[in-house]
Amino acid sequence: MGVLKRFEQRLEGLVNGTFAKVFKSEVQPVEIAGALQRECDNNATIWNRERTVVPNDFIVELSAGDYDRLSPYSGQLGDELAGLVRDYAQQQRYSFMGPVKVQLEKADELDTGLYRVRSRTLASSTSQPQAGPGQAPPNQQQGGYGYPPVAVPPMPPGPPPGGPGARRPVEGEPGPVAPGPASGAPRRHWIEINGTRHQISRPTLVLGRSTEADVRIDDPGVSRRHCEIRTGTPSTIQDLGSTNGIVVDGQHTTRATLRDGSRIVVGNTTIIYRQAEG
What we know:
19% of the residues lie in helices and 28% in strands. It is an alpha+beta fold and 278 residues long. Strand 1 (45-48) and strand 2 form a beta hairpin.
């Protein structure tokens, strides 16, 4: 039996009791549970051959209306959601750096029925791996909530680059820069929608149907604040609790790394992400 199905069964008794009215809100606990699973998958970090670490500290942001409905029961619901995350991690053979915690928070800018999940890897002194001889212990706290994803857990220091046994770069890490005129040149970022180029001149770019979005997309399948692109190394895209979600390079996701030529689908609109040196 799948983890989500077991979660639904555990909630059946609650639906008939104290949660009966609460579950009439547009955001359903099973939706949040699925988002937490995706958050684990999207932020899974390989520590070593036997250990893949996922976030253990989650915040679920809700619209004011949904938060008001759910907050009186946030403790019980948070415990159930944390249990689901633990079950899913066991199924996927993921591990945590500390105890699993799920909290609800109000986000006034979200419309009713919309939500978003933020996460971080928060280590406890009893759960972090022991440092080897000559190695500095891992940080107690790995990054914070927010976008793009927090840094991966630190890897043990290796020999100087290029020396015997030097560690190969992890995907997403900046590699050595080859000498040449392009070295140190600023990177340009832009998107193309229906043949129109939109330059990304700020660290973040919000896409949506609202006139308040940085780039407005006139598409009924696009939410008012649908997703956000953050430029960096690497650049990332984050779903902002949209109704229909995002598809990046053919994969449904809530967060993904972008590369030059990545195809993003929101509603019925296709967006091409571009980046170039200089």
